[in-house]
Amino acid sequence: MQKLLVPIDGSDYSDAAVREVIKRAQTAGGIELHLLNVQPRIFAEETLVYMPADRIDTYYYDQGSKALASAERLLKEAGVAFTSHRAVGPVAETIVEKARDLGCDGIVMGTQGRGKILGTLLGSVSLKVLQLSEVPVTLLRSDRRA
Q: What's the first-to-final CA gap in the chain, in angstroms?
């Protein structure tokens, strides 16, 4: 059984990756699917002194749930089983670490397809995942421009 990780950011690009995985699951079968939303840390350490930890955790959980909603809906409608995960940290590094921790055979992710120059200037998450990953990474570009 192939185990895949699909990073989800709530965009049309991550929905394109989910649609591709649905096709694979329906034709190949035997896919163990894991969705992952990674929220980058946005609170400075100084604010942590004044804000209760449970409030920060709730914020990140809620943001992750919003981002995962569309992908989860697509998979439920297609009847494809999955497990959702949420994490907080540096996005690309956390994706690669989660794939390693889960023992995934590959990562399937959507990309905006900005190209080498613009992607490099903007610090493309997909480019960094490609550089760090020890498993194959499939990048899919959405037909729809966001």
A: 34
Write out the two tokens for 82: 């999955």
CB 85 within 8 A of CB 37: yes
pTM of the predicted structure, to 2 decimals:
0.85
Angstrom distance (rounded) from CA 100 to CA 97: 5
Angle at 45 between CA 39 and CA 51, to 5 degrees: 85
φ/ψ of 107, rounded to 5, equals -120, 130
Q: How far apart are CA 4 and CA 85, in angstroms?
A: 13
Residue with tokens 């399937």: 108
Per residue in 51-108, pLDDT tens? 677 777 888 899 999 999 999 999 999 999 999 999 999 999 999 999 999 999 999 9
CB 112 within 8 A of CB 139: no
Domain boundaries, the chain: 2-141
CATH class name, domain 2-141: alpha beta
Return all residues near 79 (Cβ < 8 A) that are at least 6 apart. Answer: none
